[in-house]
Amino acid sequence: MRILLFGKTGQVGSGLVKDLRSVGTVRCVGRETADLSDLAAVENVIRDEHPDVVINAAAYTHVDQAEKEPQLADLINAKAPGVMAEMTHAMNAWLIHYSTDYVFDGDSTEPYTEDMTISPNSVYGRSKAAGEEAIRRAADRYLILRTSWIYSNHGRNFLNTVLRLAKQQQELRIVNDQTGTPTYSRALSAGTVAIVRKLAEGQDNQEAGIFNLTCRGATTWYGFAREIFRLAGIEDVHINPITTSEFPTLAKRPSYSVLDNTKAEKAYGVRLPDWRDSLKECLARRAFT
Ligand SMILES: NC(=O)c1ccc[n+]([C@@H]2O[C@H](COP(=O)([O-])OP(=O)(O)OC[C@H]3O[C@@H](n4cnc5c(N)ncnc54)[C@H](OP(=O)(O)O)[C@@H]3O)[C@@H](O)[C@H]2O)c1
Fold it and tell me: Are 151 and 183 in contact (CB under 8 A)?
């Protein structure tokens, strides 16, 4: 199976670079080969590679900055995936693309299933929702994996920010009224590889569509920070729970964005670990990175 991966340097993409090798021949492209704001470059690389599966782990992920750059966010998160979908459709290839819990407004009080109405309340969320729509319109063989609160030992994420701040400050203020599910990038990468393996086994019988794929359980950013500190043995820094209104950001986040993962488990047998177990694994690996 020939796999073409966009976003090789990202949190999810860099894990996929390592994990996908067990499934097929992988061509990994970064910004230098195909900048996603250059739609012709995206088209050319897919045409040249003629893959069986395209995996798009690249995205405009600066949630707050997107409020100032809506056109660029739309180009990268909606138009480019749309081109990927057109190209894979023309080649009868699969497209695997990541979307986000931020397509929801957060008004639900129970985990969101894939068929629930989306209503993003930020530019980033709208651009990702438009990406979903562009793919659905152009292709049949697609998997849109909606995930949430990604962290890893590399890159820009909550885990790294909190651990850095803990070295600089005696007290942290962390939002305690947004509930979601922290998802370790390597758990998501492993889940994606399991799906690709299923596609490789029997391409014609696999279910296409939107699938939620996050770790299990739920917490707030405050709860996440407390668990990080507990597992990392940090006892001399105090964490104060605060409300979203005490920590204003450019982009509005959903207050509740837990995703129900039942559909992916039924269709592909993929079940990611509980978020606490994944965090433990991530921190254990951190010692060796
Ligand atoms: N992070 C989260 O909390 C979160 C939550 C839910 C869903 N998601 C979704 O999950 C997916 C993976 O996210 P992630 O956290 O792994 O992202 P990330 O770590 O921010 O990495 C983004 C990747 O996209 C690439 N990229 C950005 N702009 C590009 C451009 N114009 N042309 C080519 N490549 C470009 C980056 O390349 P450079 O290194 O060259 O910049 C990088 O490889 C994305 O679809 C994201 O929307 C993320």
Answer: yes
